[in-house]
Amino acid sequence: MSQPVAFVTGCSSGIGRALADAFQRAGYRVWASARKEDDVRALAEAGFQ
């Protein structure tokens, strides 16, 4: 069975980050977006796509 995928926008903080974290803990492969390059880099280091 394939891994479920979630795409979440606004993941640098707030509800977007909370949703991304929750999906990741639930076993989803999370594709996350943010506006600032530094935030995108931090998301990648946290294991998000």
TrEMBL record:
Quote one Gene Ontology molecular function term: oxidoreductase activity
Query: Where does the secretion signal sit in this chain?
Result: none
Q: Which Pfam family name is an example for this entry?
A: adh_short
Q: Which top-rank group of organisms is this from?
A: Bacteria
* InterPro entries in the cross-refs: NAD(P)-bd_dom_sf, SDR_fam
Task: Indicate yes or no for the key word Iron-sulfur.
Answer: no
Answer whether the UniProt record assigns the keyword Acyltransferase to this protein.
Answer: no
Which key words are in the record? Oxidoreductase
By sequence similarity, the record places it as follows: Belongs to the short-chain dehydrogenases/reductases (SDR) family.
Q: What protein am I looking at?
A: SDR family NAD(P)-dependent oxidoreductase
Organism of origin is Pseudomonas aeruginosa
